[in-house]
Specification:
The chain is α+β, with helices and mostly antiparallel strands and about 120 residues long. It is built from two helices and five strands, in the order E-E-E-E-E-H-H. The chain has a five-stranded antiparallel β-sheet with strand order 1-2-3-4-5, with no helix packed on it. The longest helix is centred in the last third of the chain and has 18 residues.
Length: about 120
């Protein structure tokens, strides 16, 4: 999934320290605190190798991720605004999800085919 031979290990467990995600890559690490309920609390820590780390937090008005996605979709449809993500982004996201399922031993999720 990574270009130029970059590798990474992702660890996450709701049973050990909550809904957090830690990604250790060859050029640094990323930690996301509370990915399941980010509208309540979250923190994204980016730590490039050999550079200072930073913590980012972004809060709107308490909207859930679904509400923000729905608002962006409605704006794109009603106002013909450019949608912030492309179909290629969606395909890349699904490849990540498939890779996560594969790495857990659960295998890829079944897909539907159009008739």
């Amino acid at each position: 999934l990574f270009r130029k031979g970059v590798s990474a290990t992702v660890r996450s467990s709701p049973f050990i320290g909550g809904f957090n995600l830690n990604l250790q890559a060859t050029r640094g690490s990323v930690s996301l605190t509370n990915y399941l309920f980010p509208h309540i609390y979250h923190a994204l820590r980016v730590a490039p190798a050999g550079a200072p780390s930073r913590v980012e937090r972004l809060y709107g008005n308490g909207e859930t991720t679904f509400e923000l996605q729905l608002a962006a979709f409605a704006l794109a449809i009603r106002e013909q605004e450019r949608f912030p993500f492309t179909p290629a982004d969606a395909v890349a996201n699904m490849r990540w999800i498939d890779a996560v399922y594969e790495s857990t031993g659960l295998g890829r999720r079944p897909s539907r085919r159009s008739p």
